[in-house]
Specification:
The chain is an alpha+beta fold. It is built from 20 helices and 30 strands. The strands form 7 sheets. The chain has a 6-stranded antiparallel beta sheet with strand order 12-11-16-15-14-13. It has a 5-stranded antiparallel beta sheet with strand order 2-1-5-4-3. The longest helix is centred in the middle third of the chain and has 46 residues.
Length: 768
């Protein structure tokens, strides 16, 4: 078929009667009128036939007029559509199902010539390495969907190829060449160094002119160019060239779909010192002399290092080593026979914390040795590593805190318990009564300190209750005003429709006091501290600071100050244990980590925002409490506890390995009239219970003991005594044992240190 100059358009014919059908209609009308003149035909029938024939003639005439109008509209539409396609700035061609070009518009004739008998694949071979697969894919989609479009990368930009189906076996193709986006892959075509794009499997998808000049051909795979695969960024490799193997410095950057863009810089003096390469290469790079001073920094390197990195500045002033000084690392690289040295370093940027992985390679410039460094932003990697190390450290310190708290709680139980026993024998007029009260109060203060250790390890036993933050802050305002002093003003602002939360009131007060004291210390010249409460509804989960808040209603508490603020590189460390920006003696660094532990154990979240010189804002999110529906009966267990019971009628088996605690608990229970049987271990308790005639109402047992622990021996004992109630006591937190004791029926937990009344009241409530 010959190629025409004007591109054809789809056939726009509409359904209209052809001439054969029109002749048949007229013959039918003539027969009807002729039949009207047959002899002996009634007059009424004759008139009907004549009317019908005339009606058919009128309808046929209308159809003829309509057909001529449609033909005129079709001709006009064909001319308009043909003109649009012909004047399209993008090349367009019409092909058949086999891909043979039948026509092309003016842009296609100018781009590909006007020669006929070619296929579209042949026309595109100058733009695409393998156009046949792409054309087949688009044509198959157009057969089904009527049209298809796809963008493909070509040298210097992209090609947008669109196809529309014409009739049964025709296709209209439009080819639009798009300019390369700034910074997008493929911009390396204009670079003065070799650049190539490689697929996930190592196939070379494209090469710029410099790469083709370097290797002397259009290579298809990396293994044809390099013998020392895999390629490593910042390392020297040897590439096959027409003149033999050449030494090149490799830099890489990832592209979508697993592809890579690879840049090859010659190691000779001209290549190493090419300023155009450094400025345009899309990889952060630096050049260093023997003394460690920066000689050159490309654009991306300057963006990564910050404003403090300029030529002539020593590298040790720009970044600091994590394991050894930068000077020692540079010296070892110069002295170690040119082998590449990679190191993780921390930048000295004041605005944010940035880590980089720097890979150094030796080169020479004008007979002088230099180091070429390739920089990769490793902030995310080092952040994840720091989080892992921090979690390990927190776990270890948490275990230590829990163990220390357990031992202290045993001591405090014995101290405060025996103090309670002494107070029973002294009245307020006794001269020793005041001393005993002081001992008791200081034991309680020590217990609060142990609670902070457990809060720090997030293992303290909370006593949650439904709180209205307006009431809680109102009760706390007097103490907070005393804490902030006269130079600081404390302002409260509440949401008028504030909802309740469920939290431990004492622990929440501790958190608020800690945040207010920190805000006060951040304003040595005075100022205002605002505490704001608000109800916030999250319609979708909120992700912030590596935490995700589920959707729902929250009550927020914000503590806002106008103090000195916190530097950006220190924001992520404020909740770490023992981390503080205060001078020695002004703070321990446990306050915010304790607050973090309390808030997290309550089921809430805590975040911090700060601008140096403008102040800080700590935001606490607590899930809003949903009150039970009316008519819901209280739990049977709680109802049973409210029933008063009498002391003195019951047998208690007391199992405690700490002798001072066992002595106090035994005396306290006997003073209330209970019969107490003592045992110092789980094994001893089982031996006591081996007597079937022994009746026991309540087990009071420590949870953690040498040998058999409390839940284990209780389970064995309940096989023969299923109705016995249990009181577990421990210096550890209730949640520290997982589900060990929660599966036991009729059991409660009493944390140490406990007072005489707390122990006896708990046993009384457990009595059947």
């Amino acid at each position: 078929m010959s190629d025409r100059h004007a591109i054809p358009v789809p056939d726009l014919r509409v359904l209209a009667p052809d001439r054969g059908r029109m002749g048949a209609v007229l013959i039918l009308a003539a027969l009807m009128i002729g039949a009207a003149w047959l002899p002996d035909l009634p007059d009424l029938a004759r008139r009907g036939l004549i009317a019908a024939g005339l009606s058919v003639i009128i309808v046929a005439g209308g159809m003829v007029v309509n057909r001529r109008m449609q033909e005129r509209a079709r001709t006009t539409a064909r001319q308009l559509l043909a003109g649009i396609i012909e004047r399209d700035a993008a090349p367009g061609v019409v092909t058949d199902g086999d891909g043979l070009v039948h026509a092309r518009n003016a842009a296609a004739r100018a781009r590909f010539g006007a020669t006929g008998g070619e296929t579209l694949a042949a026309l595109l071979r100058g733009l695409l390495a393998n156009p046949s697969a792409l054309l087949l894919r688009l044509q198959s989609r157009a057969r089904i969907e009527g049209a298809a479009q796809e963008d493909v990368a070509i040298r210097g930009g992209r090609l947008r190829l669109a196809v529309h189906r014409l009739g049964e076996n025709g296709f209209l193709w439009r080819m639009e060449e798009l300019a390369q986006r700034a910074g997008a892959p493929g911009q390396a075509e204009t670079l003065p160094i070799a650049a190539l794009v490689v697929s996930r499997t190592g196939a070379i998808l494209s090469m710029n002119d410099a790469a083709r000049d370097l290797v002397g051909e259009r290579a298809r795979a990396l293994d044809r160019l390099f013998a020392d695969l895999p390629l490593r960024t910042g390392h020297f490799h040897r590439v096959e060239t027409p003149g033999g193997r050449a030494r090149v410095l490799v830099a890489q950057r990832p592209l979508p779909a697993g592809r890579r863009e690879i840049f090859l810089m010659p190691a000779d003096p001209a290549g190493a010192g090419n300023g155009a390469v450094f400025e345009t290469l899309p990889v952060a790079m630096i050049k260093i002399d023997v003394s460690g001073k920066l000689l050159e920094i490309n654009r991306l390197g300057a963006e990564l290092l910050g404003s403090g990195a300029t030529p002539g500045v020593g590298l040790e002033h720009v970044m600091t080593g994590l394991g050894r000084p930068v000077a020692d690392w540079l010296r070892a690289t110069f002295d170690d026979d040119g082998r590449q040295k990679s190191e993780f370093l921390r930048l000295t940027r004041p605005d944010r914390e940035v880590f980089v992985q720097v890979t150094l390679s030796r080169a020479s410039e004008q007979a002088e040795p230099v180091l070429i460094g390739v920089l990769n932003d490793a902030t995310e990697l080092k952040t994840l590593e720091a989080q892992f190390v921090q979690s390990q450290k927190m776990q270890a310190i948490g275990q230590l805190a829990g163990g220390v708290a357990h031992d202290f709680n045993n001591l405090l139980t014995a101290i405060s318990g025996h103090c309670d026993l002494l107070l029973l024998r002294h009245d307020q007029g006794d001269q020793d009564f005041g001393d005993l009260v002081q001992i008791n109060e200081n034991a309680n203060r020590a217990a609060a300190l142990v609670g902070q250790l457990l809060a720090f390890s997030r293992k303290q036993t909370l006593r949650p209750e439904v709180l209205d933050l307006r009431d809680t802050l109102a009760d706390l305002t007097h103490l907070l005003n005393r804490l902030v002093g006269e130079k600081v003003t404390l302002t409260l602002c509440h949401d008028p429709v504030l909802r309740p939360i469920r939290a431990d009131k004492r622990q929440l007060e501790q958190v608020l006091m800690n945040l207010v004291v920190n805000a006060r210390d951040a304003m040595p010249q005075g100022g205002e501290i605002r505490i704001e409460t608000e109800v916030v509804t999250l319609d979708s989960p909120l992700t912030r600071d590596r935490a995700t808040l589920p959707a729902g209603d929250y009550v927020t508490v914000k503590v806002v100050d106008a103090g000195t603020g916190i530097a950006p590189d220190k924001l992520q460390k404020v909740f770490e244990p023992f981390y503080t920006t205060k001078r020695t003696g002004e703070g321990t660094g446990l306050g915010l980590s304790t607050a973090y532990g309390i808030v997290k154990q309550t089921g809430g979240f805590i975040f911090v925002d700060s601008v140096p010189g403008h102040g800080s804002e700590f935001s606490l999110y607590f899930p809003a409490f949903e009150a039970p529906r009316e008519g819901t009966p209280p739990p049977a267990r709680e109802a049973a506890r409210d029933v008063p019971a009498r002391h003195g009628d019951g047998v208690v088996l007391l199992v405690e390995d700490e002798a001072p605690v066992r002595a106090f608990a035994s005396r306290a229970l006997r003073l209330r009239g209970y019969t107490v049987i003592e045992a110092d271990s789980g094994e001893d308790a089982l031996r006591v219970l081996a007597d079937p005639a022994l009746e026991v109402d309540v087990f009071v047992t420590d949870v953690v003991m040498p040998g058999m622990d409390g839940p284990t021996w209780v389970r064995r004992a309940m096989q023969d005594r299923p109705g016995v109630r249990v009181v577990f006591v421990s210096g550890y937190a209730e949640g520290a044992f997982g589900k060990a004791e929660t599966g036991l029926p009729n059991s409660v937990f009493l944390p140490k240190p406990f007072s005489l009344n707390q122990l006896t009241d708990t046993v009384r409530q457990q009595m059947p």
